[in-house]
């Protein structure tokens, strides 16, 4: 399967926003009033409520709902399901005290709620009474489903779907984009009968199960009919039936994009794997530090793999200038989205989890291995040897400056409440509520979820410097410093460009165009004669780009640099090639994005329409790589995707043949214009995918009535 170029700078932005939104970076300060911080706290709240329901602590979940989202409990249907599950959980415990509590729940909460929840509620109430008679171990009993722990997960998922919309606590854009692209990738491969080169990753990353859909309120059933364009767009984007799409729009009060986000967030990702992929990508792209300029870890044998706070640990490193500079930079770059990691007295949290110390920075691992030698904050403890370590002092100082500006990886930190099983249900509920509700406090126990960093699992020594070498070269290339790149790469590995002549040609092409742009035509011709000509003569495929490059000499008034390969593409190509040469494989996330962006492009060609949601998910930015080589690239803005209405026109090209082998009529030799109304009519009446509907319309000159008559004839 082919792949498609990706705007890695746009992906960097999405990944950084994701990591900040999920607090995966080490932050020196936070703003509790910022929108992203509020959304993060809401997502944590939803996870806590979900966790309480899944472990059977229904009262604790209800208490959290009453405090943070009391309007949710006004839905009698949902309240009835919660009270019924609470009754079952009390019986499940099996003690005499809990059985009495179940009887009390039955009389005071469940029975009254069953009277007006929904028409079938009272029958369900009478049915659940059978749990008094049939044991939970009896898998053939008529109430085996009521005893099943799957009921917990169904209710927890339903609550999550409702709360996500109610609190506007949607997952970060990158997380939703990944779900969407992988779903389309799977659908495309299945439709075309081709194998996916990333199936081993996508099958593990995007799980099959979804949360149950949120149920619209009764009052919304009288909503006016929705535009069929919106219904079909939503149904095919997130794999719903038509009725499912209508229900989703009812719940979202007709807001197509809110309904889309609701449905997309129902799909489950493997969060641990996602964090691992993001961390690997951040290390490779130089977003997080893999070097040694880090805040040291305070090693404590009694507190390994726990969160540890100390004022002394922070003060002992205050005279280390590189650490202070990194700390200040983190303040300015991440303060607006972080959850506070420093208390008012200046105490800093450190983690000494053995797994996480192998992560994004070498200093953490060294501090773990050499406990007690932390008096010296020097960052010059490791050196490269041999040819791989040859670097000019200029580039080494530049790399140090870049490393100081990088972020520090922390990993996912969840605040988990401790539920103590005591005889008194009321005491248990009060303790859980008191410990779980204060989402912004510093009194909660934190569990550091260690992320295994696949990119660095085999890095045990000073070979970590190969990341710095690759990042230095990419940084030089991204600034258009082609001559410097060639010089330093040849100093490190004289055989690199022998094996990568195309890269050398592109770098010399940049050097040539820069000289032309500055008016130094003699210098440009010298570069062409010394490098571009010999490379093209030994590689015939380079002759055409050489001719096009030389044309720049004839257009002195044009910006020659804007005609060449985008500088970001060249810099990334150099990084990938050098990384492989040094044993640093490109991140798996880059492979996923290349493949899924390609299939997204092909899928909507096949559907013969524009993706209405690509602007919302920034997919259009990921595809936009036609930027000037230098200069104005950063200032180029991306246009939002237009949202086509019911008058949209689709043109079916004559070069496309129908893919249905049962259709005998060939495609006309002329273009057939298919009205969007006709397409939607065929899709609705025949329950067909968009592409199949268009192909049928092409065969019958765009007449929807004729298509329907022929199918039903």
From TrEMBL:
Start and end residues of each stretch annotated as Disordered: 304-339, 368-405, 640-669
Compositional bias segments (type: Low complexity): 642-655
Residue ranges of domain CTLH in the record: 42-98, 466-523
InterPro entries: CTLH/CRA (IPR024964), CTLH_C (IPR006595), Ubq-SigPath_Reg (IPR050618)
Transmembrane stretches, start-end: none
Pfam families, per the entry: CTLH (PF10607)
Polar residues: compositionally biased ranges: 304-320
Basic residues composition bias: residue spans: 388-397
SMART domains: CTLH (SM00668)
Biased composition (Basic and acidic residues): 368-377
Record protein name field: CLTH domain-containing protein
Native source organism of the sequence: Cinnamomum micranthum f. kanehirae
């Amino acid at each position: 399967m082919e792949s498609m170029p990706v705007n890695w700078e746009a992906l960097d932005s999405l990944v950084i926003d994701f990591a900040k939104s999920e607090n995966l970076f080490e932050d020196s300060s936070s703003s509790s009033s910022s929108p992203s911080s509020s959304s993060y706290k809401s997502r944590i709240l939803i996870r806590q409520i979900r966790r309480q329901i899944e472990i059977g602590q229904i009262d604790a979940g209800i208490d959290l709902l009453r405090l943070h989202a009391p309007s949710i409990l006004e839905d009698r249907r949902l309240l009835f399901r919660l009270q019924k599950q609470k009754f079952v959980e009390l019986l499940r415990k099996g003690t005499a005290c809990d059985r009495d509590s179940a009887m009390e729940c039955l009389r005071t909460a469940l029975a009254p709620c069953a009277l007006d929840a929904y028409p079938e509620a009272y029958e369900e109430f009478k049915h659940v009474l059978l749990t008094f008679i049939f044991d939970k171990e009896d898998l053939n009993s008529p109430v085996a489903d009521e005893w099943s722990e799957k009921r917990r997960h169904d209710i927890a998922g339903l609550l999550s779907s409702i709360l996500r919309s109610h609190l506007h606590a949607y997952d970060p854009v990158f997380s939703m984009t990944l779900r969407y692209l992988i779903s389309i990738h799977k659908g495309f491969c299945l439709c075309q009968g081709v194998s996916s080169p990333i199936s081993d990753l996508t099958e593990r990353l995007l799980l099959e199960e979804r949360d149950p859909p949120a149920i619209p309120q009764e009052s919304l059933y009288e909503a006016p009919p929705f535009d069929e364009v919106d219904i079909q767009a939503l149904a095919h984007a997130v794999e719903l039936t038509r009725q499912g799409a209508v229900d989703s729009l009812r719940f979202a009060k007709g807001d197509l994009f809110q309904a889309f986000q609701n449905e997309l967030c129902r799909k489950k990702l493997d969060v641990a794997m996602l964090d691992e992929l993001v961390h690997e990508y951040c290390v490779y792209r130089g977003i997080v530090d893999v070097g040694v300029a880090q805040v040291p870890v305070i090693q404590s044998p009694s507190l390994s793999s726990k969160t540890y706070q100390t004022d002394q640990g922070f003060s002992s490193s205050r005279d280390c200038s590189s650490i202070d500079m990194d700390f200040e930079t983190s303040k300015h770059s991440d303060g607006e989205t972080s959850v506070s990691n420093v208390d008012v007295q200046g105490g800093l949290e450190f983690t000494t989890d053995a797994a996480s110390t192998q992560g994004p920075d070498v200093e953490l691992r060294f501090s773990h291995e050499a406990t007690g030698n932390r008096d010296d904050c020097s960052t010059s403890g490791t050196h490269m040897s041999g040819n791989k370590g040859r670097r000019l002092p200029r580039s080494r100082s530049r790399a140090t400056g870049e490393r100081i500006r990088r972020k520090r990886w922390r990993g996912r930190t969840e605040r988990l409440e401790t539920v103590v099983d005591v005889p008194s249900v009321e005491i248990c509920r009060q303790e859980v509520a008191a410990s779980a509700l204060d989402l912004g406090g510093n009194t909660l126990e934190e569990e550091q979820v260690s992320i295994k960093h696949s990119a660095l699992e085999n890095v045990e020594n000073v070979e970590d410097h190969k990341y710095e070498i690759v990042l230095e070269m990419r940084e030089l290339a991204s600034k258009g410093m082609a001559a410097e790149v060639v010089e330093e790469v040849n100093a490190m590995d004289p055989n690199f460009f022998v094996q990568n002549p195309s890269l050398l040609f592109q770098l010399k092409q940049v050097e040539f165009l820069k000289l032309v742009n500055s008016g130094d035509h003699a210098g440009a011709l010298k570069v062409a004669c010394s490098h571009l000509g010999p490379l093209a003569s030994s590689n015939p495929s380079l002759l055409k780009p050489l001719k096009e490059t030389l044309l720049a000499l004839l257009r002195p008034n044009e910006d020659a640099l804007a005609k060449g390969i985008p500088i970001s593409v060249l810099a990334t190509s150099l990084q990938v090639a050098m990384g492989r040469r040094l044993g640093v494989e490109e991140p798996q996330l880059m492979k996923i994005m290349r493949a899924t962006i390609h299939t997204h492009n092909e899928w909507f060609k096949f559907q013969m329409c524009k993706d209405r949601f690509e602007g919302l998910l920034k997919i259009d930015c990921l595809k936009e790589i036609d930027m000037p080589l230098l200069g104005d690239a950063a200032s180029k803005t991306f246009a939002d995707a237009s949202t086509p209405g019911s008058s949209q026109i689709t043109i079916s090209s004559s070069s496309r043949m129908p893919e249905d082998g049962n259709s005998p009529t060939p495609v006309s030799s002329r273009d057939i214009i298919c009205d969007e109304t006709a397409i939607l009519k065929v899709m609705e009446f025949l329950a067909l995918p968009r592409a199949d509907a268009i192909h049928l319309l092409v065969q019958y000159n765009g007449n929807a009535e004729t298509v329907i008559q022929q199918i039903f004839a």
